[in-house]
Design a protein that fits this description.
The structure holds four protein chains of four kinds. By secondary structure, chain A is mainly alpha-helical. Chain A is built from 14 helices and four strands. Chain D is mostly helical. Chain D has one domain. Classes of the chains: A mainly alpha, B alpha/beta, C alpha/beta, D mainly alpha.
């Protein structure tokens, strides 16, 4: 297939996914509307993670810190300073980007397993920071966004985040935006450089690429997207708490990405969707529903390391981004 | 002729070992320069210092009159020094075309024609037909050539080739020599080479290294006439070649 | 986790004997309470009233969760035996909040949007309640909590949240401070868990003891997930007359043991909240030093000499012996001091629903107004812990507190019972003025 | 309390911490040293040891010392078997690829932890110490059992040291660590060595847990903290270096014990975790170890 056609086709497939998400809101019962809102935000998180893991080959075990940076950046400004939703949202994203940049400056001096452990350690520190400054964050207990800050005016529209359909569409908007960003990033020259780093970093350096700078850019972008998810999560669901900064939230995007397929755009979205419902169903049967997480992780890494969309791409359509 | 690259008292130390022990070296623009010497003479270490894969312990390197001793490798590549690996180092999971395109799209050149330049590079080395193949699936000889194509796609002023003919058949070597001559029309070439026939047929200048030091430098004739080189090195190689 | 049940099922005992339970963590406790209950035919045919119980099945509050679930199930069984609510059976839908506020909020969403419950109910740990309450308000879901914290009465929650089953910490400590200062000493050091519940103790007891002419020498906050406590004890000043301790989480037994190791016989007076040893047998080795120390108890764990008939019946219904341990397994000690709140809250929900003539979710507002019309609860089988008065403005009940002394065999004897008036305080909070 | 006794108490607490940490970290270090993989499930093997100790001691009535002795033997053995199986079933098939192994051990972590939740339940359960007495210092009292833990750990470590440096088994292990291929050429069954080492590493964690469980109680979530601390120790000590690991465990155990008496334990953890991340970035060979990068 020539490249022009394949691009149109892949754009079409992605658009179809977005449109079907849009259409679902008219048929879904309330509970699933809520669940899907969550799924879309978590999918943004997974897409951010995948930018670093799937395309650049850097496996972070500490992405919860970026999610939490967005969440607390947005939540604390609303709670303590009474910022309006759009300002707080952007601030959350900026917090994540800055944290990503700083962590990147340090952690990117390592690779492979050392990188995994360093990010894991920094995420642990971030969690402890939240717990330690309990005066401002209320630690484990967390903070609830006051109801009066849940609505805002934007471009003459008044938007209320207490309305579940509004939330759904905002989440969809953000997800679409994220997919577009990732799509554009990984398709062009930049994407080719990322893949080059993933496949062989030292060779890439010897082809004139400043690989450190590129990795730093990607980590910052990845952190910003993860923070965007956290920021939106805080504002839409009106609760921030240290649970979101635990290791669990670093593992989840990895799980979603591995399941859906690392290095694909649709993979993390699909992975988040399936895993969310798998856990939701499992939790109806047992308190130990995280057992599912463990089993899926082991099975994926043993038998299915490319994930669903990774396998589809390898077998049928290599042009899939 | 103008000087392209010089080194002054270049030293690289690994622990107690002086792999490169104070080399003064000059490379003229436009020449094909061969670097020869026995195994462990420090040739690969020396060119690694030139292209920035390794940091020099002492001494300095000048490229086009500017000091580049401290410059990171990727900047040297952009400044015009390309290096192809001794051990094939291609992106084996990507297609041949992607390999070349990654090299072609480096920042100095306009973005739009990167794909065109990648194609050109593949055509030059005769790999155009394999453009959509996975690089790892190529025959060894083709992988070596792809490595060179990536160097060409960088459009460097200086192309450093580390034992490019290793493992190639005679026919492939012949084609390769032709390729190098063609590249040489725009590019200065510095190659590490064991195959003396290749060296003698290609090089206009030869430098001989032994135990981290530059033993001699001159035209092929001069080198062949050099008694020190004869005894230290060339003789043995010739015998090997004869055998 | 939940027990999913079809509403058409005839076995509407609150907890069905579904095959799924084989996979559950906490099977045994519920099994005791799952005896099938017979319903009149017409009654069984009607749609049940669904009560969503948000409980700590896992996480650091799990031992409370297990007993809260047993107590709630027993209460639901009794209510159903007595004819249900407004002639309709009651169905308890349990979801695990993992003792995590984040999951707590998700559980409430599930109740409101998936199970479509009439009332949400349950949980203990204050951070879960505080995290979940705003979501209850947003979902307009009545949320009856069995926590202990002052958060409901503080006015920072909303009109949908009630705490009618148990006295709040502020009232508890105010009512006991005079007795402590008169009988144990005036120089107090406090050790408390470093989250909302502990902060209520810190803030209100410090204030109450100061009003009695006493003072708090040192405040030692301990993270609720802590597992080692020896390092905290050196911070207790030497001139401490009373050590006031309240601890929660999986490390409580370690906490008390290490306290004993630290002090030995040279201990100050020790006044603890039984929270520090809920679900733990006081006859455990290394706890001997507790003899002669005092505990607050909401509901006395050991059946007292003057035990009421109601307490007897309540113990039998929940399956607890006179020492507060499970009838099925004497090693399984209950959270007796707290869990009555689950029992009583359900009967209060019943009372309010019947007052409101509650039929369906559409009568939600009437239910809330009915709750706000309640004034007092008389001691009885519905209120075995004792009578209470209810302040509708604060959405909070006020009852009696017990101070018990530990005896030689680890038994506890009530030495002081506060009056309701001891624990009243001024407040200008008024939830009834908030919009529904 | 005055500063002197305060510091004394802090040191005691630090020593207990260090003793347990030495054993836990030694297991992690052994696995990394020989197999070059990072076992994230290490903390869960620790937890499993504690949970098994509870079960074993509650089955065996009579003198608590009896049950405890049996637990100290059987719990590590059983944990070793679980580890052996997970190595055979999972890690071997991954060819010990470092990154894939981490992901797989994260999976094993959840499987072990949640299985414990399913079977053992969510409660914290106490184990009686084999013998208990209280040591009365002039300023405060202290658990005699904690002192026993320190002594037991020292003995066990000496034993481990002997096995590793003086026996054929240790030699085979060290040879495999040094060079996998050469070891294979000398007829060492590297696969079997790997499985045994993985099992032994887990068993060390279980031994530490059995020792600590009379102090701390068994709980299904108890694996998190030891994992973090063991990581810290192994990184500071230099990956794969046993001598470095022991030195680092002593350093971290003591400083954490002392630091968290004088400051907030949360702050102590924050500072040490940050420092460790920085060590891994800027001095990956650790503070005591030889160069052996991840």
């Amino acid at each position: 297939m020539d490249s022009k056609n394949s691009q149109i086709l892949s754009l079409g497939i992605h658009a179809a996914v977005v449109i079907s998400f849009y259409a679902l809101q008219y048929v879904l019962p309330e509970y699933h509307l809520l669940a899907l809102t969550r799924i879309m935000l978590l999918a943004i998180f997974a897409l951010g993670f995948n930018l670093l893991f799937g395309y650049t080959g850097l496996l972070s075990l500490g992405h919860a810190m970026f999610f939490a940076a967005g969440m607390y950046g947005a939540g604390l400004t609303v709670y303590h300073f009474g910022w309006s939703v759009p300002g707080a949202f952007l601030f959350g994203v900026v917090c994540g980007a800055i944290l990503g940049f700083v962590i990147g400056m340090i952690a990117l001096r390592t690779t492979g397993v050392a990188f995994m452990i360093v990010t894991l350690m920094f995420a642990k520190v971030s969690y402890l920071v939240i717990v330690y400054f309990t005066t401002y964050t209320r630690g484990d207990e967390g903070l609830v966004m006051p109801a009066e800050f849940r609505g805002f005016e934007l471009l003459g529209m008044s938007i209320s985040l207490t309305d579940s359909v509004t939330r759904y569409n905002l989440a969809l908007l953000l997800l679409t935006l994220t997919m577009l960003i990732v799509f554009l990033l990984v398709r062009g020259r930049f994407g080719r450089a990322l893949v080059a780093i993933r496949e062989n970093e030292s060779r890439t350096r010897m082809l004139g690429y400043n690989t450190f700078a590129i990795k730093l850019k990607v980590l910052t972008a990845s952190a910003a997207l993860s923070a965007m998810a956290g920021s939106a999560y805080a504002l839409m669901f009106a609760y921030i708490g240290s649970s979101f900064a635990t290791i669990q939230y670093s593992i989840d995007p990895l799980l979603y990405t591995l399941l859906g397929g690392a290095g694909t755009v649709l993979g993390p979205v699909f992975g988040t969707f399936s895993m969310f419902y798998l856990i939701d169903i499992a939790s109806e049967y047992t308190s130990a529903y995280l057992l599912v997480t463990g089993i899926v992780l082991v099975l994926l890494i043993l038998y299915f390391p490319k994930g669903v969309f990774g396998a589809i791409r390898q077998k049928y359509c290599r042009w899939l981004p | 002729m103008t000087t392209l690259l010089t080194t002054r008292q270049l030293v690289k130390r690994f622990g107690g070992l002086n792999a490169v022990a104070g080399v003064d070296f000059t490379l003229e623009k436009g020449e094909i320069h061969a670097l020869i010497g026995p195994n462990g003479a420090g040739k690969t270490t020396f060119v690694s210092l030139l292209c920035g894969r390794l940091e020099a312990t002492e001494g300095s390197i000048f490229f086009k009159g500017k000091e580049i001793t401290e410059m990171p490798a990727w900047k040297r590549v952009r400044a015009g020094i390309a290096y192809t690996f001794q051990i094939t180092s291609i992106y084996s999971n990507l297609t041949v075309f992607q390999n070349a395109a990654i090299a072609a799209q480096h920042a100095n050149k306009p973005a739009d024609d990167a794909e065109q330049r990648a194609k050109t590079a593949l055509e030059k080395v005769g790999l155009a037909a394999y453009a959509s193949h996975e690089a790892g699936s190529l025959a060894y000889g083709h992988q070596r050539v792809l490595e060179v194509a990536m160097g060409i796609a960088l459009e460097p002023e200086l192309l450093i080739l580390d034992e490019p003919t290793q493992g190639l058949s005679d026919l492939e070597i012949e084609q390769f020599c032709g390729l190098i001559r063609e590249i040489n029309q725009q590019t200065t070439v510095l190659l590490i080479e064991h195959n003396m026939q290749v060296v003698m047929s290609l090089a206009r200048q030869i430098s001989v290294m032994d135990q981290g030091l530059l033993l001699a430098q001159g035209t092929p004739d001069e080198i062949q006439a050099n008694a020190a080189v004869q005894s230290a090195y060339l003789g043995t190689i010739d015998e090997e070649n004869v055998a | 986790m939940k027990q999913k049940k079809e509403s058409s099922s005839t076995d509407v005992t609150g907890v069905s004997s579904s095959r799924r339970r084989t996979l559950k963590t906490i099977g045994t406790g519920i099994a005791a309470a799952t005896a099938p209950v017979w319903f009149p035919r017409a009654y069984a045919a009607s749609e049940p009233i669904k009560i969503g119980a948000q409980l700590h099945r896992t996480g650091i509050g799990a031992s409370y969760g297990r007993w809260y679930e047993r107590t709630a199930t027993a209460a639901v069984n009794l209510i159903n035996e007595q004819g249900g609510i407004n002639g309709r059976p009651v169905e308890l839908i349990v979801e695990d909040d993992g003792t995590d506020p984040k999951r707590g909020t998700e559980v409430l969403e599930k109740f409101a949007t998936q199970h479509k419950v009439d009332v949400a109910y349950g949980t203990l740990f204050s951070h879960v309640v505080i995290g979940s309450s705003p979501r209850a308000g947003e979902l307009k879901l009545p949320y009856v909590v069995c926590s202990e914290g002052h958060h409901v009465a503080s006015g920072k929650l909303n009109r949908y949240v009630f705490q009618p089953g148990i006295t709040d910490v502020r009232s508890q400590v105010i009512s006991m401070a005079p007795w402590i200062s008169q009988n144990l000493g005036k120089k107090v050091t406090m050790m408390f868990p470093d989250f909302a519940f502990g902060h209520d103790h810190r803030d209100y007891f410090s204030q109450a003891i100061a009003e009695q002419g006493g003072e708090v020498l040192e405040l030692i906050a301990v993270p609720p997930t802590e597992t080692s406590f020896t390092r905290y004890f050196p911070r207790i000043p030497r001139d401490t007359e009373v050590l006031y301790h309240v601890m929660v989480g999986p490390g409580v037994l370690t906490f008390v043991k290490e306290m004993g190791q630290h002090f030995g016989k040279k201990r100050p007076e020790i006044f603890g909240f039984i929270d520090s040893l809920e679900a733990v047998d006081l006859a455990t080795p290394q706890l001997e030093f507790l003899e002669g120390t005092y505990f607050w108890e909401g509901n006395p764990r050991y059946a007292q000499a003057d035990q009421s008939d109601f307490d007897k019946q309540y113990r039998a219904a929940v399956g607890v012996d006179g020492k507060g341990a499970s009838l099925a397994d004497p090693k399984d000690v209950s959270t007796y001091s707290h869990m009555f709140a689950c029992w009583e809250s359900l009967f209060i929900i019943k009372e309010a629903m019947e007052l409101a003539g509650y039929r369906s979710v559409a009568d939600k507002n009437a239910f809330i107004e009915a709750m706000e019309s309640l004034q007092k609860f008389d001691e009885g089988l519905a209120h075995p812990q004792g009578n209470k008065i209810f302040n509708p403005k604060l959405h909070q009940s006020f009852g009696h507190q017990h101070i018990s002394k530990v005896g030689a065999d680890g038994s506890m004897e009530v030495v002081h019972k506060t009056s309701i008036e001891d624990g009243l305080y001024e407040s200008d909070v008024d939830y009834t003025q908030m919009a529904l | 309390m005055d500063f002197g006794p305060f510091l004394f108490l802090a040191t005691l607490e630090g020593l207990v911490q260090a003793a347990v940490l030495c054993l836990t970290a030694l297991g992690l270090s052994l696995v990394f040293g020989v197999m070059r993989v990072v076992n994230v499930a290490h903390g869960e093997f620790y937890m499993l040891g504690a949970v098994l100790a509870y079960w074993i001691t509650s089955w065996i009535s009579g003198n608590p010392a009896m049950g405890f002795a049996v637990a100290l033997l059987l719990a590590p053995l059983f944990v070793g078997v679980v580890a052996y199986l997970s190595e055979k079933i999972i890690l071997r098939r991954l060819g010990y690829d470092p990154e894939a192994t981490i992901v797989a051990t994260i999976g094993i972590l959840y499987i072990l932890q949640q299985t414990a939740l399913l079977t053992f339940g969510p409660d914290a359960r106490p184990v009686e110490p084999p013998l208990y007495f209280r040591v009365e210092f002039p300023w405060f009292g202290y658990s005699g059992y904690k002192l026993i833990v320190i002594a037991a750990a020292v003995i066990l470590l000496l034993l481990a040291w002997f096995v590793i440096t003086r026996t054929r088994l240790g030699l085979i292990m060290r040879a495999t660590q040094f060079d996998r291929e050469t070891a294979q050429n000398y007829g060492i069954a590297v696969d079997r060595v790997y499985a045994m080492v993985f099992a032994a590493g887990a068993a060390f964690a279980a031994i530490a847990a059995v020792l600590i469980v009379p102090i701390q109680q068994a709980h299904y979530l108890m694996g998190g903290d030891p994992l973090l601390l063991a990581f810290i120790v192994v990184i500071i000590g230099g990956l794969g270096s046993i001598r470095g690991t022991l030195l680092a465990a002593l350093l971290i155990g003591l400083s954490d014990g002392i630091f968290s008496v004088f400051f907030s334990p949360t702050l102590a953890k924050m500072v040490s975790t940050t420092l460790v991340a920085l060590v891994l970035v800027f001095k990956p060979e650790g503070l005591f170890g030889h160069r052996s990068r991840l």
